[in-house]
Amino acid sequence: MPISIQADQAVLRQGEHSAVMYIVIKGRVGVERRDKNGELIKLGELTLHESFGENALLGRDICRATVTALEDSEFLTIDRNHFMEVVRQVSLEEMIDIFSALGAQVQLSSEIEFEQTLTRRTLAAQMEAEKQRALTEMVAGVAHEINTPLSAINAAVSIMARELAAPKEVTTQRAADIAESLELMRRNVERAHRLVQDFKKISVGHLRDEKELFDVAEAVEETVSLVLVNLKRSQIAVNFVNRLTIEQRNWDGYRGVLSQILINLLTNAERHAYPNGIGGDVDVVIELADDNNYRLTVQDYGKGIPMEIQPRIFEPFFTTGRSNGGTGLGLAIVHNLVTNVLKGEVHLRPGLQKGCSFLVTFPRVLPD
């Protein structure tokens, strides 16, 4: 018999007992379940003429997933008693056809769940690998960048050693040379210290992934500064703009997650917008989207993304740059971190004439 379910209402809940199969005759539903660790896994959507609940109908099994109406929907229901009545009245050949169709549907559902689980685990493993890769690249970049202030400090020390090697009259020129050397040392010690401190904050955030109260604009700027060490070799200039007031900058969130999102987006621009070291500009902007949300924008002016593939850019393993070392997981990781950890949204801004712009929106107050 047909039944109606309003939008956002559960049709079946994971763990409940059921002996009913549902066929969608209007609307659409979302299917999701929680694994043994309590993590929510979205298995997909079902729409017109698709069915669910076959396992419950055949074996009185508990529901393995929660099915929720995504809009006002109607379903044709077949309970176990009605199903047995139908089976008794049909021929053996028809019965075989019925069970074959149900078996195929159960197999398809299992295959979809397996693929989703495999993709999720692969994504989790790749996310961890991306963390380590980003940290490794930052270590190499910081080590290379620190060579510059250390060389300047070494030169200043040599000048001072020469000036102080033997007693001489302290002339105005000698005093000026020594003062200049000291100032050069001070500036470069500060520069080296700032690089180390920025790396320390970001690396600890990457490894710890715990909520902390910090200046969100400062964290974005620190990440840009460190990533820029490597991007400069590809002739890429990053322009950072902070549009937050002092009062708007304190955020109780995940420093490491935010930096990983930004690192992946900047790396994506380097690899796809400006391939082969052709170089170009990238704008990074942090601002309020509205009273309750931040917006992080990463915009380049490079090759852009063809319209026909834009709907697929956040799909795991989808890439047009596999020949250049692309895995197809960079933007999938961004999407996963934004939606599942920061409880936000990430979109590609439509209609740009040149390049592409990613908009990451996330709450100023993260839900518990």
Short description:
By secondary structure, this protein is an alpha+beta fold. It has helices at residues 54-59, 80-89, 92-164, 172-208, 216-231, 255-273, 330-341, and strands spanning 2-5, 10-12, 20-26, 29-34, 40-46, 51-52, 66-69, 73-79, 212-215, 236-242, 250-253, 280-290, 293-300, 345-348, 357-363.
How does the SSE layout of this entry go?
Blueprint lengths: L1 E4 L4 E3 L7 E7 L2 E6 L5 E7 L4 E2 L1 H6 L6 E4 L3 E7 H10 L2 H73 L7 H37 L3 E4 H16 L4 E7 L7 E4 L1 H19 L6 E11 L2 E8 L29 H12 L3 E4 L8 E7 L5
Parallel strand pairs: 10-12
Antiparallel strand pairs: 1-8, 2-7, 3-6, 3-8, 4-5, 4-7, 9-11, 12-13, 13-15, 14-15
Helix pairs in contact: 3-4, 3-5, 4-5, 4-6, 5-6, 6-7
Could you explain how this protein is built, in words?
By secondary structure, the protein is α+β, with helices and mostly antiparallel strands. It has two domains: 2-89, Sandwich (Jelly Rolls); 132-363, Heat Shock Protein 90. The protein has helices at residues 54-59, 80-89, 92-164, 172-208, 216-231, 255-273, 330-341, and strands at 2-5, 10-12, 20-26, 29-34, 40-46, 51-52, 66-69, 73-79, 212-215, 236-242, 250-253, 280-290, 293-300, 345-348, 357-363. The strands form four sheets. A five-stranded mixed beta sheet has the order 10-12-13-15-14. Helix 3 crosses helix 5, helix 4 packs across helix 5 and helix 5 (216-231) runs parallel beside helix 6 (255-273). The longest helix has 73 residues, at 92-164. It is elongated, with a radius of gyration of 29 Å.
